[in-house]
Amino acid sequence: MEHISDILVMGSGLAGLGYALKVADFATVNLITKRGLTETSTSLAQGGIAAVLGPDDRFEYHIADTLTVGEGLSHPDIVELVVRQGPDRIRELVELGAHFDPGQDNGYDLGREGGHSRRRIIHAHDMTGAEVERILAERVLAHPNIRVFENHMGVNLITLERVMRQGRVVTEADKSCLGAYVLNTATGQVDTFLARITLLATGGAGKVYLYTSNPDIATGDGVAMAYRAGALIGNMEFVQFHPTCLYHPTAKNFLISEALRGEGAILLDSRGRRFMEKYHELKDLAPRDSVARAIDEEMKKSGDDCVYLDISHKPADFIQSRFPNIYQRCLELAIDMTREPIPVVPAAHYMCGGVVTEAWGRTTIANLYAVGEVSMTGLHGANRLASNSLLEALVFSHQAAQAARETLPQLQVKPAFPVAAWDTYGATDSEEAVVVSHSWEEIRRFMWNYVGIVRSNSRLHRAQARIGPILQEINDYYWKFLITSDLLELRNIAYVADLIIRMALWREESRGLHYNLDFPQADDARFRRDTLISSEGWH
Ligand code: SIN
Fold first, then answer.
1. Which of 46, 297, 329, 513 has the fewest C-beta atoms under 10 angstroms from its C-beta?
2. Mean pLDDT value across residues 196-215
């Protein structure tokens, strides 16, 4: 089946929904999402959105904090653009109906998180993402110009280059995106979605690692599709590990927000001793990379399975009203955080690299845009400042929508060449689901062990030796059998794992989130630059 709209949006977190609402004023939109509309990383975001809203804060301070944490790789023009737009974009959310916790003098209650020199995190208790997602989803579902397709997952992007290869010589100018082949995961059918503009808003790739704070959907689909289509990808070695995810045998992916440390929570070892002062002058409020590495080292030295986060010295009613979601979840697991420390471990949390874009969200493929965690805009550099991610998604969904408003009238309504329907090339049903689940498990485990918080060349080479054959096997398997969402996700995490490993090997230094024992110092002379690669090679 063929579906045609002006704009195709892939993904339904803040980036996808925010963008769809803006462009729907002047364009028809098909929005596909892998599962339910609100089953996204945005919905799980606890901390909040960083923006200059407090009386003691200034754009310059937020810019300086972002640049410091980014360790020389954040692009100053992009940092400035994002920070300066923050208050306007937040105002738009409030006008749509989002409720944030009130503070004094008709202002907002502003939280503090690691690496921020001021209180500047606007939040809705500890469920900020859910509040933002709720309001955007309501508006999207009510909009007559937006058609939502749940349980639809991108397979491959369709580029003019690929269409024309069937009959003509291809030139550089022919690289443009026409839409995507999309799997309806309920029926198993692959449909063709054509659009004048395609937006990737598919989120991150935490599922590449064994332990992650991300939801199951975070399998790097956008990066993998863009890479296969020839787009430039950058900085994938910078994977952010959140220092404090709940450690409990039955708790999957549950984050203990950094906002707890912002409100005075302290990290303790199993004997109740503080340890962060040994690692960083900002102690428990140090940036995430330092805290995650410190916890990793403490756990390795002691042999313990976790460390502890303690906020029990604060009044119980404050804890319950400021962190109702975390309090409730811990209580369900028989942990009363008003009286005892919470067991925590680091877990993969955020992908700072992604599909390279410029200031309007444009990728290196014409008419293909990327916004949110899937993108690499230059904001985060080598490490992301806490709560800058929802801000980035807000600002770039606005930027990309402005670009679409200007560009759309100049784009052809339908491709000039017929786009062939998806061809299964005689593939058959696979009865070997076990092959897929084994490879999943294997990739996630060696990525955790060898390409995690602390790396070394020998660990990275081990990972590289494993991913090559697995990728080969998956690609063979992929063409033989009818595709399923599990197979697509496996293929995507394998592509993303391969990119992370190659980029981590290339960066022979330690900077921000990339720490290599063989090169423990930053090397500005060789590596104060982004890591850039496309399917054609290094850039
Ligand atoms: C948190 O609440 O700790 C997560 C915030 C973020 O990832 O920016």
1. 297
2. 97
Mean pLDDT on 69-93: 98
How sure is the predictor about 164, in pLDDT bands with cuts at 50, 70 and 90?
Answer: low
In this predicted structure, what is the pLDDT of residue 167?
56
Q: Note the CATH architecture for domain 433-538.
A: Up-down Bundle (1.20)
> Which DSSP symbol is given to 149?
E
* β-sheet bridge partners, residue 43: none
Is the distance from the beta carbon of residue 389 to the nearest atom of ligand 1 less than 6 Å? yes
Closest CA to 420 of 229, 183, 181, 199: 181
The verdict on the CB of residue 33 being under 6 Å from ligand 1 is: no
Give the number of the atom of ligand 1 that is nearest the alpha carbon of residue 385.
Answer: 8
**Residue 47 Cβ contacting ligand 1 at under 6 Å:** yes
Residue 190 has pLDDT above 70, yes or no: yes
Fold classification of 2-238+352-410 is: FAD/NAD(P)-binding domain (3.50.50)
d(CA 325, CA 135): 19
Strand partners, 308: 268, 343
The whole-angstrom separation of Cα 245 and Cα 257 is 8
All CATH 1.20.58.100 domain ranges in the chain, comma separated? 433-538
The amino acid at residue 121 is I
Specify the residue for token string 């992908």: 351
pLDDT of residue 161 exceeding 80, the answer is no
Sign of torsion over alpha carbons 171, 175, 178, 180? positive
> By mean pLDDT, which of 119-128, 167-176, 346-355, 409-418 is the weakest?
167-176
Residues carrying an active site annotation:
288
Note the pTM of the prediction, 2 decimals: 0.96
In the CATH hierarchy, which fold is given to the domain comprising 242-348? Flavocytochrome C3; Chain A, domain 1 (3.90.700)
